[in-house]
Design brief:
Layout (H helix, E strand, L loop, with lengths): L10 E7 L2 H10 L8 E7 L18 E8 L8 H19 L5 E4 L3 E4 L2 E13 L2 E11 L15 H5 L5 H20 L4 H8 L7 E6 L2 E10 L5 E5 L2 E5 L5 E3 L2
Helix pairs in contact: 2-4, 2-5
Length: 250
Amino acid sequence: MLKKMPIGDTIIELSEIDSTNNYAMRLINEGMAEHGVVVRADFQTEGKGQLGNTWHSEERKNLLLSVILDTTGFSLERQFYLNAMACLSVADALMTNYTLRDISIKWPNDIYAGNRKLAGILIENNLRGNTWTNAIIGIGINVNQVNFPDLNRATSIRNETSQDIKMGALMKQLFRSINKFYEIFKQQNESLFEFYNQMLYMRNQEILFQKRYEIFKGILKGVSTEGLIEIQVENKLKRFMHKEIELMLE
């Protein structure tokens, strides 16, 4: 797999696919993938969200793509650094050209405008033994879709700005942002997590969260480099994995 190609230089354009992440994984498995290749689709029949959820999107209304990365040489312990890099890239692209209110990162990998979800990220890793060979960063940004009947906390750039957004311009800016933050990721720079925590949704605010069948109250303090959320509960700092708890948002 080539490593010199800037991310986004090669784009595979599809009108319809099950999911861009699935297509990208097939390229990897067939030995046809190159670092930096992007798979973009107008419509996904089986778009993926976190924890097996489905990503619903109207045809040609949103930006749906996957980025293939060569992660050979990176430690498996740095997987959440890649997540932080992806989140910061999307947030940076959204803040660069659009007047959007209160862009933040909701742990672990959703992008919010105010109190509504504007974008989501799903990273899938390819391993050979203990070697982290490839990563696929799936990105879905709500762009020109207006109605979200199944997602009452969703919004789009158009809803937030009242403007019809040009998809090509957004995509070009996204690639510029990804390449910028990928360089920081390659340098194994701890500043990624400083930036990530600075943008963390509800940071230093009191939140409700559910663990199994119990509901707790605590203050969200940040996220560790392992991707664990840190919540202060009754003057004790506790850490939780993504699947261990659920944040309960109003």
